[in-house]
Specification:
It comes from SAR86 cluster bacterium. This protein is of the alpha+beta class. It has one domain: Up-down Bundle (Glutathione S-transferase Yfyf (Class Pi), Chain A, domain 2), CATH 1.20.1050.130. α1 links the parallel β1 and β2. The chain is globular and about 50 Å long. A 4-stranded mixed β-sheet has the order 2-1-3-4, with helices on one face. The structure holds glutathione.
Length: about 240
């Protein structure tokens, strides 16, 4: 049986990572038998990132490569039904969500002083109390470096919030009022957007990004609709 390895629950979420949640949604929708296990330390994962999929004892990293693999073994059930235009539109939205808005979500959790204690408890709660602040601070430095390398980390918080609002407005404009992006049932690109937005809307306590996102009612309703359709929610239900 396939094994999907994800991060453990945190911040009031059952599945905290957009990439892990997207993969769980996709595999559930494909009705592929799989079990989920947890790994708290991404350094133990291939490429140092979660999720990964264990296939016949081999570890397959990256949620997108996993989707391609799942497409292969289901004879095209992931991407096969999409026209090139739909795939182009979906992939552009996925890149917006996962390569831009995702980083603003990371910053809203990791780099906000007021939210920082939640990271220490949520991600490093299993580390011995004595070394916990040190281990957490080292990880934070890495996140901060990565954010700066991305480029977003060079901007003021005010500008980061303005970037986030433009991303949210773009997604709000792109998702349908009813139904899903490209059909009667949700597909890979719906899972990508909804998995990210679930972690923004539902993480506890709210981050500055949660507060910015809340007024985007259409995006919120869409996020709920996708989760309900597949029966997989980021939060515990
Ligand atoms: N492109 C990867 C991204 C995965 C990713 O960034 N996972 C995060 C959790 S949301 C992670 O493991 N981060 C740990 C790190 O970067 O050290 C995918 O689609 O699976």
């Amino acid at each position: 049986m396939l094994e999907l390895v994800t991060l453990p629950p945190a911040f009031g979420m059952r599945n905290i990572s957009p990439f892990c949640l997207k993969s769980e949604m996709l595999m559930t929708s494909l009705e592929i038998p799989f079990k989920m296990t947890q790994e708290a330390d991404p350094r133990q994962a291939p490429n140092g990132k979660l999720p990964f999929l264990v296939v016949d004892g081999k570890r397959l990293p990256d949620s997108e490569l996993m989707a391609v693999y799942l497409d292969d073994i289901t004879q095209g059930k992931v991407y096969g039904g999409l026209t090139p235009a739909q795939n182009g539109q979906g992939l552009a939205l996925a890149r917006l969500a996962e390569d831009h808005l995702y980083w603003l979500m990371v910053a809203s959790r990791w780099l906000d002083e007021a939210w920082w204690p939640n990271i220490v408890e949520g991600f490093f709660g299993i580390a011995p109390r004595l070394v916990r602040p040190l281990v957490a601070a080292m990880a934070r430095r890495e996140v901060s470096k990565g954010y700066r390398l991305h480029g977003l980390g060079r901007h003021s918080l005010e500008d980061q919030k303005a970037f986030a609002l433009r991303d949210l407005a773009a997604l709000e404009g792109a998702v349908p009022e009813l139904g899903f992006l490209f059909g009667d049932s949700p597909g890979i690109y719906d899972f990508t957007i909804a998995a990210l937005m679930a972690g923004i809307f539902d993480n506890q306590p709210a981050t500055w990004l949660t507060t910015l996102a809340m007024p985007f009612a259409r995006l919120h309703a869409y996020t709920e609709r996708v989760q309900a359709a597949v029966g997989v929610y980021g939060r515990p239900v």
